[in-house]
């Protein structure tokens, strides 16, 4: 048994290590997702690795689970206060915008290739959504600093538009497999899936917070395991009731983030690591699945569709969806350009393979070529485009970054990092206005810890450990949140 598993274990370790080291190249502006796929392609049948892998069903299963955890991580990292002002625009882009993009690309694919109209529309549905993993990776890199409102809109769109693309893809496959089925029936199915996914996400997000708060586990290391079980339950329950599980997972994470519970920041950091692991597994598996030697055969069609998608379909969808809301043209231009395609379209391209749709292999290769083009062109140029449009901010960093909420009997500890733009900088601790009994018990400055007094002045880079009674924790956090804005 050990000898049989040894090649698999060594191979997995080498590929994972190669992907992690390859991420260092992202400093040169190359998106991480492209590097992970490159590792898979080099290790696959056509590459020097020579690993035979052509199981679309396995790739689809891995991709679906990985995407669920990536969306959960993205939701945990999303502040409700940031997305609330843009929720209408985000939902419009993730539904109407996706539909317009799918229709335009479908018609163009039918016109420019020899694909039947049904397969052309299927291709449009597959590439209609922006990819959450790709957008999160690019927008949260050190090279991109966008206004909070614009970044939140782009992240909300990418996190919530996969359900629409999945619905369209499955619907078109259903129409191809059963031409007698009624398209009108699909409309009711769509609203049912979206509504049920949203409702279950809200309910399960609130329930997850209550469970984490009240369960009081004896070992801190069990909280990540508990959260993984919650994610799987949310996905399984929603999928089993015919709701949209991806929307439910994303919404549940946003709702959970709004609640205060033990080890909150630790779980957020844990899922950041899980998201990176899932991206590596997902992109590397999809890289193994493709045969690079076949890509030149679809290069002409793929390039034409990629150019049309980037320069015509996506901008048209953005303008038609958001122009009535009177957004500045520069923001419309950037939103149009940040239409990154990543693993989600490639995962959706495995659906026709599994369903046995005619020409599914060719569709998969065209989609893969479109994703590579998007990653190379759009993924590497987002920082430059943002600067040219005057929408790139300096590296000011957030004012307050809450790091941890730690339980200690009837007391709670909140750890805070003070950034340069914070309104706390230059103020004495006694000026914070903390509730009676709340104390800053430890101050960490450049690695040196001290027990501060009320007259201690706060500097940028300080880490503060604030202790307060449980009833006062909400007030303490509110005071610290109010200090996010720089002092006038």
Distance between the termini: 68 Å
Quick one: overall form? Answer: globular
Sequence of strands across the biggest β-sheet: 1-2-5-3-4
Biggest sheet overview: 5 strands, antiparallel
Overview features:
alpha+beta; disordered C terminus; Na+/H+ antiporter like fold; 5 strands; 2 domains; single chain; Alpha-Beta Plaits; 488 residues
Outline the structure in words:
The protein is α+β, with helices and mostly antiparallel strands and 488 residues long. The chain folds into two domains: 2-388, Na+/H+ antiporter like fold (Up-down Bundle); 400-482, Alpha-Beta Plaits (2-Layer Sandwich). Helices cover 64% and strands 7% of the residues. The chain is built from 18 helices and five strands. Strands 1-2-5-3-4 form a five-stranded antiparallel β-sheet. Helix 5 (87-112) packs across helix 8 (148-160) and helix 16 runs antiparallel to helix 17. It is globular, with a radius of gyration of 24 Å. The termini are far apart. Residues 395-409 and 484-488 have low confidence and may be disordered.
Structure summary:
With 488 residues, the protein is α+β, with helices and mostly antiparallel strands. The chain has helices spanning 2-22, 32-43, 56-76, 80-83, 87-112, 117-126, 132-139, 148-160, 162-177, 183-215, 222-240, 245-257, 264-289, 295-322, 329-337, 343-355, 360-388, 470-482; strands at residues 400-408, 411-418, 439-445, 448-450, 463-469.
């Amino acid at each position: 048994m050990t000898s049989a598993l040894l090649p698999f274990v060594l191979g997995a370790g080498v590929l994972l290590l190669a992907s992690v080291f390859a991420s260092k190249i992202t400093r040169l502006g190359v998106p991480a997702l492209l590097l992970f796929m490159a590792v898979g392609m080099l290790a696959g049948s056509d590459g020097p690795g020579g690993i035979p892998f052509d199981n679309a069903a396995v790739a689809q299963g891995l991709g679906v689970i990985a995407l669920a955890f990536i969306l959960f991580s993205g939701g945990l990292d999303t502040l409700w206060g940031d997305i609330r002002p843009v929720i209408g625009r985000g939902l419009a882009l993730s539904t109407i915008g996706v539909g317009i993009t799918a229709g335009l690309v479908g018609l163009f694919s039918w016109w420019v290739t020899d694909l039947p109209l049904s397969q052309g529309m299927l291709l449009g549905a597959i590439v209609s959504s922006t990819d959450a993993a790709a957008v999160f990776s690019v927008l949260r890199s050190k090279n991109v600093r966008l206004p909070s409102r614009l970044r939140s809109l782009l992240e909300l769109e990418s996190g919530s538009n996969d359900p629409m693309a999945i619905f369209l893809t499955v619907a078109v496959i259903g129409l191809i497999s059963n031409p007698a089925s009624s398209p009108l029936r699909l409309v009711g199915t769509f609203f049912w899936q979206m509504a049920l996914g949203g409702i279950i996400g809200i309910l399960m997000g609130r329930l997850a917070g209550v469970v984490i708060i009240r369960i009081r586990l004896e070992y801190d290391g069990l909280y990540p395991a508990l959260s993984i079980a919650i994610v799987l339950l949310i996905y399984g329950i929603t999928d089993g009731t015919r709701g949209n599980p991806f929307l439910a997972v994303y919404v549940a994470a946003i709702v959970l983030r709004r609640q205060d519970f033990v080890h909150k920041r630790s779980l957020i950091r844990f899922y950041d690591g899980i998201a990176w692991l899932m991206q590596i597994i997902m992109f590397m598996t999809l890289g193994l699945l493709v045969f690079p030697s076949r890509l030149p055969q679809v290069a002409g069609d793929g390039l034409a569709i990629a150019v049309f998608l980037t320069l015509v379909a996506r901008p048209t969808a953005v303008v038609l969806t958001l122009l009535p809301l009177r957004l500045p043209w520069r923001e419309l231009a950037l939103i149009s350009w940040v239409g990154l395609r990543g693993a989600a379209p490639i995962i959706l391209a495995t659906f026709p393979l599994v369903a046995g749709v005619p020409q599914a292999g060719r569709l998969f290769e065209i989609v893969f070529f479109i994703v590579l083009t998007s990653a190379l062109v759009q993924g590497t140029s987002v920082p430059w485009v943002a600067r040219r449009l005057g929408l790139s901010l300096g590296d000011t960093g957030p004012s307050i970054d809450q790091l941890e909420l730690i339980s200690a009997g009837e007391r709670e500890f909140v750890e805070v990092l003070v950034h340069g733009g914070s309104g706390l900088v230059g103020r004495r601790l006694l000026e914070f206005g903390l509730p009676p009994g709340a104390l800053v018990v430890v101050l960490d400055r450049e690695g040196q810890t001290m027990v501060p007094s009320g007259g201690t002045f706060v500097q940028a880079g300080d880490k503060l450990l604030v202790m307060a009674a449980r009833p006062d924790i909400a007030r303490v956090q509110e005071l610290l949140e109010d200090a996010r804005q720089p002092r006038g």
